[in-house]
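Posting this for the archive.
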Amino acid sequence: MNSVRFVSIALAALAVSATTAEAYIGPGVGAGALAAVLGVLGSIFLALFAVIYYPIKRLMKRRKSAAVDASDDRGS
């Protein structure tokens, strides 16, 4: 029982007495993280753009070809 209590107190003391992490993260990591975030956001934007734009483009092409066919029929 004493050993469990000692381990619990030791772990609590270690958790409370955290010190600063003396590590250096270079600018390459920041640039890589920024590029990854921008890449994900860009791909989401392009996916939404494609889902919205291509059906509209197809509809406009259909309307244009229907208008050309109608003007050909009137001219004959």
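DSSP finds two helices and no strands in the chain. Helices lie at 2-16, 27-75.
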